[in-house]
Design goal:
By secondary structure, this protein is of the alpha/beta class. It is built from two helices and 22 strands.
Length: 211
Amino acid sequence: MKNLIIIGARGAGREARDVAKASRGYGTEWIIKGFLDDKKDALDGFKGFEPILASVEDYMPQENDVFICPLGNPEYKKKYSGIITAKGGKFLNLIPPSCELNENIKMGQGVIINNFSAVSAGAEIGDMVTIQSHVIVGHDAKIGACCQVSSFSFIGGYAVLGECVTVSPGSVIIDRVNVGDHSIIGAGSVVIKNVKENTTVFGNPARRVSV
């Protein structure tokens, strides 16, 4: 039996706890041990949650610990999962039974896929990716490490997301479009052409915006 530890005890962490309770672990059984967060009072006012064990920086992984990192900001996700990985911590994947995954996909570690999402044939999902509910990932699409794909989004076939990309709710990335590292797709956008790295786009069709 493994002890599951959730990085972050705020909104995304509380949501991930629900996903964890509903998920299958590809042969790994666990109980939820608690959260890591530097805000010690993050769970004040909420009932029934496991404790905040320590900050990410202070916690040393123990035997039988496994981790997930549901932080919504890709840069924080990369930073804090990296701290735990450097200490020898292992990450597992959380995928509830309501999801539809083709058997011919490739998936890294620390992947979280929320309820009612679908990943089609030949897709590749990198380490520490979070895919929220009601997302469709088309065939042969590639999603790089630490991406955040928000609810009701569509990633077309052969589309490529680089590392640490944020896809905001309700967005559409059409087939064969490439989105560069650290870019942000604004809510409800329709991306019809390639997006350079470190770029924010918004609208239908999506255009670069200043932030």
